[in-house]
Design a protein that fits this description.
The complex is a heterodimer of chains A (about 250) and B (about 100). Chain A starts with a helix and ends in a 6-residue tail after the last strand. Chain A contains eight helices and ten strands. Chain A has two domains: about 40 residues, no CATH class; about 140 residues, Glutaredoxin. Chain A is an alpha/beta fold and about 250 residues long. Chain B has about 100 residues and is an alpha+beta fold. Chain B has a single domain, classed as Glutaredoxin (3-Layer(aba) Sandwich), CATH 3.40.30.10. Helices cover about 35% and strands about 20% of the residues of chain B. Chain B is built from three helices and four strands. Chain B has a four-stranded mixed sheet, with helices on both faces. Chain B is globular, with a radius of gyration of 12 Å. Classes of the chains: A alpha/beta (about 250), B alpha+beta (about 100).
């Protein structure tokens, strides 16, 4: 089992490297060692696994395009908005999805709805956030909740982005008048031309039961907190977690 | 207190062979945690915003930045792994 032996050797080396952190005083030399360690890690991960197909146009694969956001300019900034109040009626709207079909909030009356306002298709954080929700669709369905993504992008951008990332829940185009629905929900960023990152959970009657604007654009809401909200709203249990909190227990 | 000695810190004994170092607001961290949940693989979660010792170790490992998530799989350190990379590491460690 040479692979497992290599893995054990690597783990032992990582352990020894970790131990040395406190043995070396802060200095440019220590920083250089840290940077070198990171270079080795990144070099290792760039070794393509056997069988990775090369792409078509420009040699790019679909995965290259799906992960392009990781090399794109970062998006960050403090939130500029406060969400609408919990307990109030969510504003009605009709927007078009990637198939140019009109989708109205009232279409979902009777079911909890999670409105996900996000800044832009293709951008950092948004890509990970919506992929996270896509991978969690079964849990949202278990809660009987409908998930709707909303950004100022066009239906064509939504269609291409959803196809590349495998997103199957509706992405709605708040395109013209630009950001009108985001403004109704008080989460638009006029200086940037897109919305804050915001989440609303509505009950079956369209009443806002949870509202959250991320303090920074680079931050997304804690999905365990979102599940807690949906659990409280629907009476369904939280998803099973195998994680344990290991921090602060002894502090 | 950093749990386990995944980064060579001699402290509390390890609770699980997988440790996820990240933040609650990080999308990629949540992706990794939920993946482990779904796979039924026990792990410890260390909130880097609450644990400066762990944050300093991640900075040391990752070349000067607190990169999250950083995941230890049986001692193998993965900095911001894709789910594929995580799956390969879990497989190498015999956890799949």
């Amino acid at each position: 089992m040479p692979e497992q032996r290599d893995s054990r050797r690597l783990s032992e080396l990582e352990r020894r490297f970790g131990e040395l952190a406190t043995a070396i005083p802060d200095s440019p030399e220590k920083e250089a060692l840290s940077v070198l360690h990171a270079i080795v890690q990144e070099t290792r991960r760039t070794l393509a696994p056997a069988g990775r197909a090369s792409g078509g146009i420009s040699g790019l694969t679909l995965e290259d395009i799906a992960t392009m956001y990781k090399r794109a300019p970062q998006m960050d900034g403090e939130a500029v908005s406060e969400p609408l109040a919990v307990g109030t009626q969510a504003p009605e709207f009709t927007l078009r999805d990637a198939n140019n079909e009109p989708i109205s909030l009232s279409d979902f009356r009777g079911s909890p709805v999670v409105l996900v306002f996000y800044p832009l298709d293709w951008s950092p954080t948004c890509s990970d956030q919506l992929s996270l929700y896509q991978s969690e669709l079964a849990e949202f369905e278990r809660f009987g909740a409908k998930l709707l993504g909303i950004s100022v992008d066009s239906i064509y951008s939504h269609g291409a982005w959803a196809a590349v990332r495998g997103i199957t829940f509706p992405l709605l185009a708040d395109f013209e008048p630009k950001g009108e629905v985001a403004r109704k929900y008080n989460v638009y960023r006029p200086g940037d031309g897109f919305s804050d990152r915001a989440l609303y959970v509505l009950d079956g009657q369209g009443i806002i039961r949870h509202a959250h604007v991320s303090p920074r654009l680079s931050q997304i809401p804690d999905i365990y907190g979102l599940y807690r909200t949906l659990s409280d709203l629907t009476g369904q249990p939280m998803p099973t977690s195998t994680g344990s909190e290991s921090v602060d227990a002894t502090r | 207190m950093l749990v386990g000695n995944r980064f060579g810190v001699r402290s509390a004994p390890a609770q699980a062979p997988v440790v996820v170092y990240g933040t609650r607001w990080c999308a990629a961290t949540q992706m990794v945690r939920r993946y482990l949940d779904r796979m039924g693989i026990p792990y410890s979660f260390v909130d880097l915003e609450q644990d400066p010792v762990a944050a300093a170790q991640v900075r040391w490992i990752a070349g000067g930045t607190v990169s999250h998530p950083t995941v230890s799989v049986g001692g193998e350190i993965l900095v911001q792994p894709s789910l594929n990379e995580l799956e390969w590491a879990l497989d190498r460690a015999g956890l799949l």
